[in-house]
Amino acid sequence: MSRPKRGKTLERRRAEEAARKAAQAKRSNRRRAALMAGGSLFVVAAAIVLVVLQPPAPGVAFPDLGNQHLSSLDEPHVVYNSRPPSSGPHMGNLANWGESDVQIPPELYVHNLEDGGVVLAYSCGSSCPELVDGLRQVLADFAGRNLLLMPYQDIVDPDGVARRAAAVAWGRVLYFDELSDSSGEQLDRFIRTFEGIDHHVGA
Fold first, then answer.
1. 51 falls in which pLDDT band (50, 70, 90)?
2. Which of 188, 191, 170, 164 is nearest to 86 (CA)?
């Protein structure tokens, strides 16, 4: 009986070793794919949890009425859809940042909103000195930011209820009647969320 040739035995061993390595690589690839799938699922789940747990942005959202520039304050234009107005036609120049002791027409201050500003408005004349002082303190706390404080005599929420104060950003209004701990925190978050966002077309 003849013995198998040594070359054939070596060939067989090499083939077995190659098959073993291929099987090992296949198992390793399956483990890697499973880990990657698990990691992807974790990232998606974490993103969903963040979205669900994150509180909604403060204030009431209003549809964007566009950025049309007016040639004069009395030029006819579409009716603003919030009180105070939060977007829409406006002049090409800005109202001065800081405090104004007179009401500024929306056709002027809406450009401030477009430029990333927040308007703090109050509608209580001399009957709410504490509220006005509180808004002045907010203005001071955010010194150097794009804020405008002024009286405004037409603050009405979407339910038709007259309110004493509002914070206005582009397309969003936060209504309140006093600066309590709760409304103060909301106002702070409103300013930090919306101040500085450029709303020019294509920005």
1. very low
2. 170
